[in-house]
Amino acid sequence: MSDKRHTARDARRRQRRSEKRDAKLKAFDDFNQVVNPDNLCTAFKKSRREVSWKESVQRYEANLLPNILDARKKLLAGESVQKGFKEFTLNER
Q1: Does the first or last residue of the chain, that is N or C, have fewer Cβ atoms within 10 Å of its Cβ?
Q2: From CA 40, how far away is CA 32, in angstroms rounded?
Q3: Domain spans of the chain?
Q4: Pick from 69, 46, 73, 70: which is nearest to 57 by CA?
């Protein structure tokens, strides 16, 4: 009897957690909200925290409006918006 009770309690807990997670993610489930230029600008401002000194961030910010509009156009077309990565060798003592 104890195993059935524990299994049922575990199932109820998992269900509640799943419902909470789904409720939190529901706010981000609207593609039109994602491609909204205001939200893209807000996302940029959040992403630059602690790294605004980097040249790539400053370059993106210098052309913020065209970059956001370009990202929006690519998102609507289903294209990738990643700029790519630079590979470099790190030499330490």
Answers
A1: C
A2: 11
A3: 1-29, 35-81
A4: 46
